[in-house]
Amino acid sequence: MKTRSSFSPSTNMNRAVLVVFFAGLLGFASCAHVGRTDPAPDAPEPSTVEVVKANRQHLSHTLEIAAEFRPFQEIDVYSKVAGYVKKIRVDYGDRVREGQEIAELEVPELVDELQRSKAATRQAEQEIVAARAELQRSESVHELAALEYTRLAGVMKARPGLIAQQDIDTAFGKEREAEAKKGADQAALAAAQQQLQVAQANEQKERTLLAYTIISAPFQGVITQRYADNGAMIQQGTSSRTQAMPLVRLAQTDILRLVIPVPESDVSHVRLGDSVQVTVSSLNRVFKGKVARFSDQLDLQTRTMHTEVDVENPNLILIPGMYATARLVLDQSPNALAVPIQAIRREGDQAVVFRVNRNNAIERCPVQLGIENPDLVEIKSGLSENDLVVVGAHSDLKTGEKVRFRIESPKAEEGRS
Length: 417
What we know:
The chain is an alpha+beta fold. It has four domains: 50-57 and 334-407, conserved putative lor/sdh protein from methanococcus maripaludis s2 fold; 79-105 and 213-246, CATH 2.40.50.100; 109-210, Helix Hairpins (Orthogonal Bundle), CATH 1.10.287; 254-333, Efflux pump adaptor protein, beta barrel domain (Elongation Factor Tu (Ef-tu), domain 3), CATH 2.40.30.170. Helix content is 30%, strand content 37%. The strands form two sheets. It has a six-stranded antiparallel beta barrel. Strands 6-5-3-8 form a four-stranded antiparallel β-sheet, with no helix packed on it.
């Protein structure tokens, strides 16, 4: 028995058509894939940087430091002699002129010593008068003795043997004796004169010591302390072995000292006569001063130099002990090429800036720095005026890199890409 196939001729034809159809689709897809090209990726956009123009400015290097006012002079006034305070004529805050009496001491023994010295002087004067009279008498005796001897000697020479030799010898002896007496009287007069000088010196000493009982102001100033009252016992202030008590403390305040500890890095810029701006916050006022003196030596502990500024205080508005801020101009350049300090990049001992050139490309420029303040720094070489320099971060910048820039100004300008 024959078996009949389940596929008919029409079915085979349909299969052929389907094969051709799918083969066409595959061929079309394959052509489409081969003919397509992917678009090229976009170039990266240039980064934008902040820039400033290097321009000319007045730059100065200043030192601002807190300081304290001190009196120009300040002393404790002691007594040269010991005694009781008879009258003290000043008190706290009194202003005194030079030579004005501050106090008077009572020292009775000095008065007695002066009287004794005066008596000794008068006695010495009387002794001189007596010695001078005795000298005159001896001079007269000597003249007579000499005359007598001269005459006898002349006669003896003219007529030998007329006068005995004994008479000649006696006359000669009297003349020698009178001459010796004259010499002794001259020495006595000189001694009396020396004694008078000693007596006068002692008298002057007692007068001087007595004058020290009037204590006067050595300079113009203000009384800032009073240590003694009337009747107080004051010891002699010339011996270091005694704890002598002063009468008052005197301070000169019409001119004040402002002491500035200048740091070691700035001492080479300090010059005598430099102007100093002194700001007193408690008074809300600014005063002018000048560098008057400095020690020219560093304190080994603080590494600073003692510098003093004199500040005139004619109206006495400034009080010693007040705090002030001193602003000292150490160096200045009136026409410096300057850029912000943020534009500087430190690379070891070298300083560089990043400049944007005419092609909007970054250039690395080593520069030499000058005066520097908290905001600006002077460029001595390496840049020209109106050059555009980058401020801010520099770590991502590369030499030759194209950038956009924005100038830091009230109306910022955008650089072309």
